[in-house]
Amino acid sequence: MYHFIVNPNARSGLGKDTWNTIERVLVDKNVDYQVYETKYQRHATAISRKITEQEGIHNIIVLGGDGTVNEVVNGIFDLERVILGYVPIGSSNDFARGLSLSQNPLEALAGILNPKECVPINVGIIGYGNQKRRRFCVSSGLGFDAAVCHQIVVSHLKTFFNKIKLGKLAYAGVALQQLIKAKPSSMSITVDGKTTKYEKVLFAAAMNLKYEGGGFMFAPKAVVNDSILNIVIAHNLPKLKILLLLPLAYRGLHTHFKGISILEGKNIIINSEVPLPIHTDGEPIFLHNKIHVTLEGKTLRVVKR
């Protein structure tokens, strides 16, 4: 049995059209499946929780964007009893990009139905506020990158660029807007017990995969199953220099410049002098000035091809 969790509103309605195409293939091939369409924020979490509370191994297929994957993963009862398939139809698709998954829906479906390779991936956990926790697969952080994620949720740019099939340009447009408004903060960052103070930090992100924000290769050396997080810190950078570095980040070349620091570790605590936006896989969380980031003890299997 395949459990398809579908976000019909992904990429401004493309989700529904893509599901209709995929369902015709499933019917033609006489595949045993159940479909669940998400109807509200974090509905996918409730759906995946209900599925995975049952005994046995569960094949869950996500049709949506990084946010839908995040919701599904946050609902999984036992990571080791799930095989996750993904048909990427979001605006950024950093989860698919980071794992080199096919972004062609029918190719992705073919690999899911006849898998040749499944990869175990680490799953991150962020703690914040009054003992609140959320999982993430791609990245989690606070500051500028999270502010972009917060704004993209309400921006009309995303809808416009999705309609002309250039969704990731919305992230670039919003990034420019947020850069102008950004107010860097001092941060203390503790990695595996060692604390370093950074001044004028634009953002600090714990990366599980190489990409975030619609294709920015912020952490070129990140490996999804090495049980290590890459912590990317942008600090002491004039805004003009940041503007010049952002295009380089699409190829990971920003890391050669002063003001970009990358640490590696398993247990990260980030303290900011002022409350800042937080995100998990692009999903916004309200302002906080402290986060604790680590990894789940179990891995999640993802169908690669």
TrEMBL record:
Domain of life: Bacteria
UniProt GO MF annotations: kinase activity
Domain DAGKc positions: 1-130
Cofactors (names): Mg(2+)
Record keywords: ATP-binding, Kinase, Lipid biosynthesis, Lipid metabolism, Nucleotide-binding, Phospholipid biosynthesis, Phospholipid metabolism, Transferase
Record bears the keyword Zinc-finger: no
Pfam families, sorted: DAGK_cat, YegS_C
Listed NCBIfam families: YegS/Rv2252/BmrU family lipid kinase
Similarity-based family: Belongs to the diacylglycerol/lipid kinase family.
Protein name per its UniProtKB record: Diacylglycerol kinase family lipid kinase
Organism per entry: Aequitasia blattaphilus
